[in-house]
Amino acid sequence: MSLFELDDVSIAYHTRESAVFAVNHVSLGLESGTALGLVGESGCGKSTLALAALGLLPRFANVWQGTIRFEGRAVSTMADADLRALRWRRMAYVPQSALASLVPVHSIRRQFRDTAAAHGMRAIEADRRAAELLRRVELDPIVLDRFPHELSGGMRQRAIIALALLFKPPLLVADEPTTGLDVIVQRQIVNLLIDLRRTEALSLLFISHDIGVVAELCDRIAVLYAGEVMEEGPTLEVLARPSHPYTMGLARSFPDIRAPDRPLVSIPGHPPRLSEVSKGCPFATRCPFVRDLCRTDKPRKTEVGRDRSVACHFADEAARMRETATRPGIWEEGVAAA
Amino acid sequence: MSNASSALPHTSAFDGRIRASTRRVVDFLKIAFESWSGAFGITVLGLIIVVAALSPWIAPYDPIANHFNAAGQLKRLEPPSAAHWLGTTYYGLDVLSQMIDGSRIVLIVGITCASFIAVIGTNVGLVAGYYGGRVDATLMRITGLAFGIPFIPFAVVLVALLGPSLWNMILTISLLMWRTTARVIRSQVLSLRERAFVKAAKIAGASDLRIIYIHIFPNVLPMTLLYVAFDIAWAVLAEASISFLGFGDPNQVSWGQMLYLAYVSGSIRQAWWWTIPPGLGLSLFVISVFLVGRQYEKLASPRLR
Amino acid sequence: MGFLSYAGRRAAHTAVTLALLLVFMFVLFRLIPGDPTTLLLGTGELTAEAQQRLRAQWGLDQSMLEQFISYGRNLLSGELGLSFYYRRPVTEVIAPMLANTLLLMLPIVVLAIGLGIAIGTWLGWRRGERVEELGAVLVLVPRALPVFWTGIVFLSLFAYKLQWFPIGGIRETFFYPESWYQFIPYYDVLRHLVLPVATGVLASMADPLMIMRTSLIEVRDEEFMILARARGLSTRNLQRLARRSAFLPVLTYSAIMVGFAFGGQVLLEVVFTWPGMGRLMVNSVTQRDYPVAQAAFFLMAAVVIALNFAVDLIYGWLDPRIRYE
Known about the structure:
The complex is a heterotrimer.
Chain A: E1 4-14, E2 19-30, E3 35-39, H1 46-53, E4 61-70, E5 73-74, H2 80-86, E6 91-94, H3 98-101, H4 108-118, H5 123-136, H6 153-164, E7 171-175, H7 183-200, E8 203-208, H8 211-217, E9 220-225, E10 228-234, H9 235-240, H10 245-251, H11 292-296, E11 301-303, E12 309-311, H12 318-325, H13 329-333
Parallel strand pairs in A: 3-8, 3-9, 6-7, 7-8
Antiparallel strand pairs in A: 1-2, 1-4, 4-5, 9-10, 10-12, 11-12
Chain B: H1 2-34, H2 36-53, H3 55-58, H4 95-131, H5 133-148, H6 151-162, H7 166-193, H8 196-203, H9 208-247, H10 255-264, H11 272-300
Chain C: H1 3-30, H2 38-41, H3 48-58, H4 64-76, H5 90-125, H6 130-144, H7 147-161, H8 187-204, H9 206-220, H10 223-230, H11 235-271, H12 277-286, H13 290-318
């Protein structure tokens, strides 16, 4: 049994006119003790998935179909009272902006105590745990009596990670925790997370658009596009030998220190608007290998190798596409130009 | 044919702007009528405007003419009848005609004051927010003073000093009520000032004045207009209050003054036809302005929808 | 940084505003047509020796600047001159009226803010539901009614027609308790308070209500509320957290509200013939009793400024981010 799994989940946002699907038929699994990275462009639905996992969707959104399961129990249909027992105790959340997410008018100590009290832990115990955890993330416990706006970005992020570990939850959902931080602080946070994974046996659902960080941190990677999973599998394999054109483009859009002069790829175009539901593959409008079938039929999940799957009609031609993809010209003009 | 096409490019830019403005007004009306509250508001306001504009022609009698009955006696405090739909006052004047005439004051005071308040308040806000530093501190101190002064006592003193005329009242109201608009616009400008388009204009060498009025002002305009709407309502209520206290313009028939006369002549006990209409009129006017303002707010900031 | 330095800065601000108020009033009351000394000495109502004393006290024979300094010093130390109309020191005339005004104003302000926050929270938490839409519109109605008109309507209905409450004033001249409940202390005054307080609360309640509601709606969608939910806080705690943050704009407004309350107070006191400072002010202006008018005006403005200062301090205490201003 996976620790956490998404079973054919679709999530809709309800506007005055209609329902817009941010996540479409996504199935993913996270095993205990592993780290899964969710990558994709802005608006691909990764943050929505994170919120849904914890039952934190806003009032006008809901899980339209499918089930989200945590430790075997369906959290997408659970009553709020039951969910509350799970929240923070069994699954914790590290948001993108600690400044916006911490209560601005409470001291750090107060945030720890309030969280503790919500789950029956006494204030003295909470203070002790807080000091211990802050030291663990290399912060001086003096920070406890500061307010969020008095700390630097890196300190805040570490404080919020410490807060997340209050009850030693088996699952940590981190939504772009390093975005917006400068590279030095990013490095510190990533190192901290790697360290924590090792010592605390933490399972991690790591959401980011920074493939480099995901490559370091996560055992498995899932690539999302327009609310659908394009490709999924062990991180190193997927990045070294991508099977989906989108992943191929993404992998080439990062500078490689081994080949600093290699030209970077920028996939022209932009993701489709969520209000426009596509019949075929969502990536069809930007894919250099697109064919008629792609526009009319949705690709089904195909197994490629051990523990890997990809959603492409032409998954068996992956090796050839991979080779063509290394030629930068085709991303601008399409296969014809190659 | 060819003449027409050569004339077009010259006027098309101007035409375009007119078309855009009318489109915006139509959009606004559409949204307003979408909800029953907005529709109600616009209808009532429209009604008042029409009555005010046509008042000399639709009033059954001269508002300040005394009426006598067949025996030559003053028709004091007569309840509504066929001859006088809303009855008469203690002084024998026709209430309906006074109501119709008073609607003019409502619009005059409302629009004039709101315009002055908008001009003063917006400019203070723009200058204070944009320049910051000493200029801001000074202007904000003055605004702080304006907030500290209670309105009605101040108005009473000023009108007593300057004499009770409609113009003095408009002046008094405008002199103090710009304070809210100033504060609101200033905080808007403070956040706009840091935006990229302002910095870009600065780098391009635009003068301060140009940046304030051509770049920043159009962005605060929606907020200004919103507050103009509410200021119209406040100004009208302020004038009514001052008149009610007895400091109104004796030469004008305003709804507030009608209530003043009703109160001091001891007629509120029985003359409901005299006390209800002016207050009701004022209330409906203010409610309508609020409702329309709310609809406009929905247009300007869709988040609150 | 810290609270003390913030408090110090606000105190300096307030002092400057007070000084500006004095300048403003000095100029304003000099606009009275006629001899500037008319303001304080009247036109012959006072005895010669009284006039002499006042002349010395207010420095009326000296330069403008020295007059202003005496003016400021006098007003701030409570030396408010002599009333022409009452032939007594202004302080004696105003003091009881001030008490009466506060007796009326405090319940109105407290109830208006209390009710406003309670109903505003209730509405804000139910955003999007039908009852909220309706409520938001209904709330605007009492706001739009001119406060003096509501007073008149209440009077003619509850006092004249139904005779449940007295017509005006603060107490009956002769009041003999008959039924058991009439023996409750201050029953008579309370009876007289009901209508004016009800009118005042009705008019003043809408603003804090709308501010609290809008504020709560905005706070609910803030990111820290999402994390608070994630942390497992109960609904009650979430509401408390939201209320705590949403409450701040209401606090700011309450200082301004007192300024409006004084204005509404004048109207209420006139309609209900309540012997308070507002009515005193209006009468004294009509009677050309300028020392009283000036003193009343100064008191009201000074109270508002002082209250603003108090609110600044409270706000700084509740929201540490503000202390940098």
